[in-house]
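User: Quick one: structure for sequence A, then sequence B.

Assistant: Sequence A:
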Amino acid sequence: AMFRIAQEALRNTATHSGVKQATLEYREDGNTAELTIGDHGKGFDTAVRGGGLGVISMKERAHLASGTVAITTHPGRGTSIRASFPLAPGRIA
């Protein structure tokens, strides 16, 4: 789930942000795995564009893996996507 979310977020950055660079950060704290993908591109107005199929698919993938996806975006200042998943013994996000 995390790989596919990262893939879609990076595809969205390449297609829509207007920049050629993004950051990807992975963290674990023992109970939670967290993936953050960000860029300093165009961003978008969530009131106008609540999200296309890519955003919907990221949220659905996270939900199926008991996780969440949060998107923070500001027109002209970029976008950050954070995917969080609970870690259980023997379970890989």
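Sequence B:
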Amino acid sequence: MPKLVIKGKNIDITAALKDYINKKISKLDKYNQHIVEIVFEMHVEKNPRISDNKMVDVNIYANGAVIRAEEASPDMYASIDMVMDKLERQMKKYEEKKVRNRTNKLKTGEALAGDLDSYEDVKEESEDEQYLTY
């Protein structure tokens, strides 16, 4: 399990919020081999003009990448749901990118050697044809 950090600004982090976050984070268990640390930051804006005043920012530190998402809504639990949906999509994309980069690739040296071998075969065939026909 990666390291989980939960921070709050202008909000008390209750046990119910922590349990809810842990339950939602469990959806990302299939990506645990990449995830190093997850940082949850929850904010409540005091300005009455801001209707979506419950904000959630999440940073996931993966192997060589930082995946970030933020959402805001009038309800903290709804913000957590929306940000987790966004993170699932991003983690799926990250995983597919990692798999795509690992497969179906030749090393540069192998690719160049293969091209040279085929070129030499064609060259030898054309030289043989020259000597056979006089």
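The CA atoms of residues 54 and 75 lie 6 Å apart. DSSP finds three helices and four strands in the chain.

User: Thanks, that's what I needed.
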